[in-house]
Amino acid sequence: MQNLQLSCLSTEQNQHLQASLSRLHRVAQHARAQDVRLLVDAEYTFINPALSLLVAALAMRWNSSEEEGPWVWNTYQAYLKDTHERLERDAKAAHEAGLAFGVKLVRGAYLDKERSVTQLHGKEDCTQPDYEATSRSYSRCLELMLRRVSNHGPRCHLMVASHNEESIRQATRRMWELGIPLDGPVCFGQLLGMCDHVSLALGQAGYMVYKSIPYGCLEEVIPYLIRRAQENRSVLQGARREQALLSQELWRRLLGRKA
């Protein structure tokens, strides 16, 4: 990769930056060789601009091919007020640059921390006021991306990363209305062990479904799972429904065996 030097950084910091870019380039190169998409997760707002810059640099290298679909994707958090505007801007910029565009759309998992940091520094709150507003934001972003997928085909891909059943119903309904094929550039993602009944129903209907498996030590994985539960308040209600469905199926099988 080219030797990047930023005037705002010291010589040592520029060396660290160059080393980071080289490592990321090797990761993307290996992922491409293995035919695996590279989805970069989002973080806190004070980190996201740097993450987006790195993703943009990787996208310029790996999403400019004429081959089908983007290889490097970015994540967009609907609980931030400016997400719809940024998503629209980035999608347009990628199209004008001749790049494929890949989006993982989430609600967001750092609401409490973002608000505490905002209050601490006396800044304007960048997050949606409540869960309902976040859901409306997610719905708008979902509609934006599904329309772009419909218009730009294999050059624009979307992962509907949600445990919210209403968001999933909106996605499947609009895919049918827009003529987006089930096995095409839209997929769904849920955590393993969360909303498995939704994942199963999607898979049986022919949609592409990915189950995310958190991996790491307990000190890292447990906080991650807690944030996911906070992000999706409907998960707890869905878990109760899933338990009822499993219980119902278990009794059906037991009664069937007795018969």
Brief synopsis:
The protein is of the alpha/beta class. The chain has helices at 11-33, 48-62, 83-96, 111-121, 131-152, 165-178, 196-205, 218-231, 234-258; strands at residues 38-39, 72-77, 101-106, 156-161, 186-191, 208-212.
Tally of discrete structural domains: 2
Helix content: 55-70%
Assign an overall shape.
Answer: globular
**What is the H/E string?**
HEHEHEHHEHEHEHH
Unreliable stretches covering 5 or more consecutive residues: 234-238
Q: What's the quaternary structure here?
A: single chain
How many strand elements? 6
Count every helix, treating DSSP H or I runs of 4 or more residues as helices.
9
Q: Which CATH architecture of the largest domain would you pick?
A: Alpha-Beta Barrel
How do the helices and strands line up, and which of them pair or pack?
Elements: H1 11-33, E1 38-39, H2 48-62, E2 72-77, H3 83-96, E3 101-106, H4 111-121, H5 131-152, E4 156-161, H6 165-178, E5 186-191, H7 196-205, E6 208-212, H8 218-231, H9 234-258
Parallel strand pairs: 1-2, 2-3, 3-4, 4-5, 5-6
Descriptive report:
The protein is an alpha/beta fold and 259 residues long. The protein folds into 2 domains: 7-35; 37-258, TIM Barrel, CATH 3.20.20.220. It has helices at residues 11-33, 48-62, 83-96, 111-121, 131-152, 165-178, 196-205, 218-231, 234-258; strands at residues 38-39, 72-77, 101-106, 156-161, 186-191, 208-212. It has a 6-stranded parallel beta sheet with strand order 1-2-3-4-5-6. α3 packs parallel to α5 (131-152) and α5 runs parallel beside α6 (165-178). The radius of gyration is 20 Å and the shape is globular.
